[in-house]
Amino acid sequence: LAPFRNECVDVLNDNFGILCDNHHHEVATAGQCEIDIKFDLMTNSADGAQTYKYVVRNVAQEFGKVATMMPKPISMDSGSGMHTNVSLWKKNENTFYDKDEDLELSQIGRYFCGGVMEHARGLTAITNPTTNSYHRLVPGYEAPCYVSWSDANRSAMIRIPAKRGRATRTELRSVDPSANPYLAFSTILASGLDGIKNKLEARDRVYINLYDLNRDEREAMGIDNL
């Protein structure tokens, strides 16, 4: 898979000006790849996501393969997400970063998480628009199927990646590649801004493996099914 990924990265960088931070094999057994696109303005990022799909499919064809963006192409194997990272900036400063707050995540960042969690189930109409989307959102395959957040828990819907400062951000892990990125990014932003406007507090962070809990235990913790 490495030559295929290298070719995709080269085409994205050289022909479309889309910078890639990283690429690697993912956990699914059947040829699953991840290529990370460097952050940009929202519309540019949506353009990049569409171009990414176009490039990957065409490079795969050159290799005599077929690339699929289906969220769950193979039953009983891990599906494919489109993890969406967000930060809000003002006057060249990342408003999600505050070195004096817990996790160094600002109150604005927490309200943003609270807004996304408040609207999470409605968001799926845009971020997970196909029947196949819900074949992915099941327990046991690292796909988030419960409304939760954490800085270090891959069963959570929202994760706060480890890097801080200018790189402080939220990662919404429920989005999948069948989504229209223009609509998905817009609705995620609208939900987060609603959280900031109405001061919607994010619930407590979750560090336990949510897949190990039964429904009663999750409900007792205030954790909804996505």
As a percent range, the share of strand residues is 5-15%
Low-confidence stretches: none
Shape descriptor: globular
Give me the count of strands.
8
**Radius of gyration over C-alpha positions, nearest whole angstrom:** 18 Å
Mean pLDDT: 92
> N-to-C terminal Cα separation, in Å?
33 Å
DSSP summary: helix tally = 7
**Overall helicity:** 25-40%
Sheet having the most strands: 4 strands, mixed
The secondary-structure class comes to alpha+beta
Strand order of the largest sheet: 3-8-7-6
Would you list the SSEs in sequence order as H and E? HEEHEEEHHHEEEHH
What does this structure look like?
This protein has helices at residues 2-16, 42-62, 107-118, 120-127, 131-136, 181-197, 215-220, and strands spanning 20-25, 33-37, 84-86, 89-90, 93-94, 149-150, 158-159, 170-172. The strands form three sheets. A four-stranded mixed sheet has the order 3-8-7-6, covered by helices on one side. It is of the alpha+beta class and 226 residues long. It is built from seven helices and eight strands; from the N terminus they run αββαβββαααβββαα. Helix 2 packs antiparallel against helix 6 (181-197) and helix 3 packs across helix 6. The model has no long low-confidence stretch (mean pLDDT 92).
